[in-house]
Amino acid sequence: MKVKQRLEALRDLMKEHQIDIYLVPTADYHNSENVGRYFMERAYISGFTGSAGSVLVGKDWAGLWTDGRYFLQAEDQLEGSGIDLYRMGEEGVPSLEDFIKDKLVQGGKLAFDGRCITYGQGLDLQNIVGEKMGSLVYDLDLIDQVWEDRPPISKEPIFELDIKYTGESRASKLVRLRSAMEDTGADSHVITSLDDIGWLLNIRGRDVDYFPLALSYLIVDMDKVILYIDEEKISGEIMAGLISDGVEIMPYNAIYEDIKHIERKILLDPDWVNYAIYGNICDKDIIIEGQNPTIMMKTVKNEIEIDNIRKAHIKDGIAHTKYLYWLKKEVEEGRIGNQTEISVSDKLEGLRRDQDGFICPSFAPISAFGDHGAIVHYEADGLSDRVLAQGSFLLNDTGGNYIEGSTDISRTIVLGLVSQKMKEDYTRVLQAHIRLARAKFLYGCSGANLDILARQPLWDAYLNYNHGTGHGVGYLANIHEPPISFRWQVGVKPATRLEEGMVITDEPGLYIGGSHGIRIENELLVRKGPKNDYGQFMYFEALTYCPIDLDSVLVDMLTEDDKAYMNDYHQKVYDLIGPGLEEEERRWLREVTRPI
Q1: pLDDT-based confidence at 243, cuts 50/70/90?
Q2: What is the pTM for the complete model shown?
Q3: Exposure of 26 by Cβ count < 10 A (0-12 exposed, 13-18 middle, 19+ buried)?
């Protein structure tokens, strides 16, 4: 069925159940950013494949809400679908909640699958429906009834991370978590976010596209732990280890019945626990709302994790540098017209797979040539895959999961000669990247305090980019790890201060519709600097080691400090990556990391 037919089939079911508005979010039952194919209901019903967005369907209308990363992509994919695009954050565009307030008739019925909505959002929707004297239904998965040939839910086996990678046993982590629970007055804690469960138990899986995580729920009591997961995923050896640490195994979906009978004080994070779990708790007075303590625990990496992350980045840097060498040779020798966005992306992935310990890509690769680069999260497919040519930029935003950690890197590569305007744009983005990377700041600052450093070179020219400047990075988990970010718009919650041991990306960009896109991204490690009478100073250490293309840099636009940082960074790239290259590749690397 095409999108219009799917919408009509959904509306027939809505009519049968007397539903006025049906909400289809992006998330799985764990509010994961990336989801397995079984959970891609929003993509199925709308045709929009971006990683963020929600669809509302009424009797004679439908709308998609998504953020600035996906405006151009959504415009293209929604064309002819009958679904209107609502650009979140733009002037005059109602929020999804305000739209529901306006559209839901008095006494109307709003429905959604409560497993795919956080209970924080669910409570907001519950209040809206209450104001309309209407009804809310959260136990209907209507898309499942429409979706022909729905992929099966993943049954991939889990694997365990040795302490030489994690730096801490799950027994130690459980002690820390229980101490934090005690501080809140909770006797139990429900964890549904897959990266928190994976971190706490030192397990990983392959149930989520690109993120090595396992579909599961967890209830932690003071004297036991219950892991809700398909038992067939667990080997005998891993099972024995879990049991020895006091972990009981129950079927994946059993939590929805078990939670009905809980009577002790229970800690829930409204940003992660789904509305169906919340709804099944009979006595709401036992709920203690608060952030999962594991969120802050896992975002501060220990010394063993940091050492491993550095190793992962050297492996990734070798693969990526080999790719850049190959790509530039294709240009120089006139073969670039034989390549496409997908073929060069496949080449890079192949070079990563050659590295020991490679597991899988850490997110869907962005390989965007020319004006496709202006689509912030462009993903090439069989229809859009463009042949490369000289005279523009190729924007690559890719990453890898290695047993030692995860990487996320963006490079914009010059293919042949480009215009003076494109060089100016590229140089401003490079300035933006450098200004943030070389920041020194007092302890207590958050990414909201520092975001201006990256935006200033662009704002000086009345330019901007419509996404955050950086995000936290998980250790073999979510490549976008909350709660830290570089973002001047922080929303209703205060921004999280930066702590030593956190890993965060530095990725300013510039996107010129119909022409080109530029993004330069490294991962940074938050480090302590000197402490004096003014306080504890902090700085960033670059973790990503890969040359930044100098072919379109206008050196005269850079300050002496910019040039000093760039030269120091490139010397480190040569020192760390050079030994992993062939002789000809190493000679090339010496040239492209030359002082400027």
Answers
A1: very high
A2: 0.92
A3: buried
What's the chain's average pLDDT? 96
Question: Phi and psi of 250, rounded to 5°?
Answer: -130, 160
Query: Closest Cα to residue 371, out of 353, 339, 352, 394?
Result: 394
Mean pLDDT to the nearest integer, 141-161:
95
3 state SS of 526: strand
Question: What b/e sequence results for 87-111 when a residue is b if at least 16 CB atoms lie within 10 Å of its CB, and e otherwise?
Answer: bbeeeeeeebeebbeebbeeebbbb
**Mean pLDDT of the 531-554 span:** 98
Phi, psi (rounded to 5 degrees) for 531: -120, 130
Closest-CA residue to 110 (of 137, 140, 131)? 137
- Report the pLDDT value the prediction gives residue 189, as an integer from 0 to 100: 98
Does position 33 have pLDDT exceeding 90, yes or no? no
Sign of the dihedral defined by the CA atoms of residues 327, 331, 334, 335, in that order: positive
Residue with tokens 């912030």: 376
If phi > 0 it is left, if psi is from -120 to 50 it is alpha, else beta; for residue 19 that is beta
| Cβ-based neighbour number of residue 575 at 10 Å | 11
The answer to whether the beta carbons of residues 430 and 412 sit under 8 Å apart is no
Q: How far apart are the first and last CA of the chain?
A: 57
Within its chain, how far is the Cα of 204 from the centroid?
17
Preceding omega of 152 cis (within 30 degrees of 0): no
Report the alpha-carbon distance of residue 41 to residue 143 in Å, rounded.
6
